[in-house]
Design goal:
151 residues, alpha+beta, 2 domains, three-stranded mixed β-sheet, two-stranded antiparallel ribbon, 5 strands, binds zinc ion
């Protein structure tokens, strides 16, 4: 692995410590893989990157680490892509997620989901007696760099 850890990796290690998660080399390598990729990574892609950086890890371990990272809020699963992205927002918000997925370059953009947006999205279900626990909004489209889709 490379010598200097990014801010994301350092902050994530801090959060792991404060949540009682041991900092192991495989966990560090998974964090680094997420951090270094511009696109979200599938479980297989995370494993490949860890192997490339000299670690040894099997698919089940990658899956477990990603689950643990999700639980403490340093990574998110992007359902549309069945892939994982690092969370660079400061606060805990596992139950309120807003992501936009670019169909041009495959990048994912994260933004805060406001209370008003959340209410707007959930009110029709609440009216039907549903009790929401978590809300994950994923928007498909094209980013500013990729521009509008060619006609
Ligand atoms: Zn986030
Ligand atoms: Zn794009």
């Amino acid at each position: 692995m490379s010598g200097t850890a990014s801010e994301f990796v350092l902050q994530s290690l801090e959060r792991m410590k404060s949540r009682g998660l041991r900092i192991t080399m495989p966990r560090r390598l998974v964090l680094q893989a997420l951090d270094e990729s511009v696109q979200p990574l599938t479980v297989a892609a995370v494993r490949e990157r860890v192997l490339e950086s000299g670690g040894h890890i099997d698919t089940v371990t990658v899956y477990r680490i990603l689950s643990a990272l999700q639980e403490i809020g340093v990574a998110h699963r992007i359902g549309l892509l069945d892939a994982f992205a690092p969370c660079r927002l400061a606060h805990d918000h596992q139950n309120q997620q807003l992501h936009a997925v670019c169909e041009g370059c495959g990048k994912v953009f994260e933004s805060e989901l406001s209370g008003a947006q959340e209410n707007l999205a959930t009110e029709s279900m609440i009216a039907r007696g549903f009790s929401p626990r978590a809300i994950h909004v994923e928007i498909l489209g094209r980013c500013q760099e990729c521009g509008p889709a060619p006609a």
